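Appendix B, example 12.
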Amino acid sequence: MCSYVTIYSYSCPVFKDNRHFFPFADRLVRAGATKPVKRAIWGNIWLPSVSNGVNYDGLPMTTDRKKPRVFMSANEPSADAHCAEVIGALKQGGADVDVVGIGGPKMEAAGCELLENTVGRAVMTHKAIAHAGHYYKLIRRVARYLRENPVDLVVVCDSPSFNFHIAKAAKRAGTRTLFFVAPQLWAWGGWRIRKLRRCCDKLCCLLPFEEAWFGQRGVDTTFVGNPLLDKVPEDLTSYRKDYSGFDPRHARIGLMPGSRLGEIESLWQPMQEIALRLKRDFPAAHFVAVATTEERRELLKDKQIPGLACEYSVDSVTETADAVDFCVVASGSATLEVGSAGCPMVVMYQTSRILWELLGRWLVRPPFFTLINLLADRELAPEFMPYFTSIDPIVAKITAFLNDSETLNRISNELIDVVEPLTAKRAGAEVARIVVGMLE
């Protein structure tokens, strides 16, 4: 039978909560304390028995510690989905953990206590200044929350320009941090590795080569797989496309303008113009636009240009890429999903011409920008990055693809060959396992 020994609440600032108090209490018990200790912050605390059931002052002892608490930070739809997968994996694995944070509807549905829905404001870096006031207030709010409501671990997912601040606030509150999705310091801004070392206790990366790259620079890093591939089979043979007998006049083409508002604002219009141009040469072509959420679908429909006939789908990148013959994709994680379906593609990204000419072309170092090309170390998906104004080169490249079934077959098989090795790990379960280990 277990009971308790009462620890009365007087004052001792060093003991901010039970996490700080218990190690001290354990040492007292091991040292042979026989009297209740007048050291604590809040009311009665249940002191754990650590000395083989020995009673003190004639009172048995027990443990009633609170469940571990994890704070998660996601700032865009893809990160919302990634964190939701981790929460689901924690539950499925039987972890008794409370999750609180900022994110989106998928995290909330998975069981996260959401302090604020943040996924609707995700913008590209060069447009973030318009939202700077909101993000500044949000960062201060999160920092205050972490000070006043201590958690056991902070998990930040993607959006490094925002989440570096969240991680810094966590460290100031004395909390360990886990970065889920590595910032692409190997591409540009390598000097930020010092900042990452200071505010990151564990880094979970999505690309195999990142584990060694960050590890060599002093960051504890584990390759966990890619969450976008968690739901695809390990054997992707069935996704290899067969273009024998393909008639480009009846081509089915996917349009994927991305999840961020900035991407939609800059890419949805030219993607539609590309579709209209292709329709001239391939009159029976069919177009499917993929939105990340119902809200984004309504936005795409509201911005649809006259004369375009287009079907809409929600949260179906892999399924759509499997069903169509070719895709036009915004640069980002969707390129990996399209690649997992063996679907040939071209990739677009629009940025500020001024920023690109002044900074981007000098700071960005790798030969490729697109995930699928980085993994292949060759161009499987033609990149129009940065795209500024003319769609003529993009239309010409797509037209050449559609008229060359042999090349389409080859690219489809090579995409599968690149992606298939990544399907062996399930990122959600891997990150959940690491979270549990950090809480022990």
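Residues 290 and 313 are 5 Å apart (CA to CA). The two ends are 26 Å apart (CA to CA).
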